[in-house]
Write a structure and sequence with these properties.
This protein has about 60 residues and is mainly beta. About 0% of the residues lie in helices and about 45% in strands. The protein has a five-stranded antiparallel β-sheet with strand order 3-2-1-4-5, with no helix packed on it. The radius of gyration is 11 Å and the shape is globular. The N and C termini lie close together (about 5 Å).
């Protein structure tokens, strides 16, 4: 599971209530593994994810 543009495997989600709060994750065995101790905001395949390396962003379904 990687970025469609740069092949990076690290991504992040933005908190819908706080645009400056982000939740980083990587894909392992088909699952998003978040790197924070807090629970991430609810997400699904239509949630927008951002690549940690390049300017790509899109639905979670696009990186599966």
């Amino acid at each position: 599971m990687e970025c469609p543009l740069c092949r990076c495997q690290k991504f992040y989600l933005k908190d819908p209530d706080d645009e400056f709060e982000t939740y980083e994750f990587t894909w392992r065995d088909g699952e998003a593994m978040f790197e924070c101790d807090e629970a991430p905001p609810p997400w699904n395949e239509h949630t927008v994810a951002y690549c940690d390396r390049c300017a790509w962003h899109g639905n979670m379904a696009e990186i599966k």
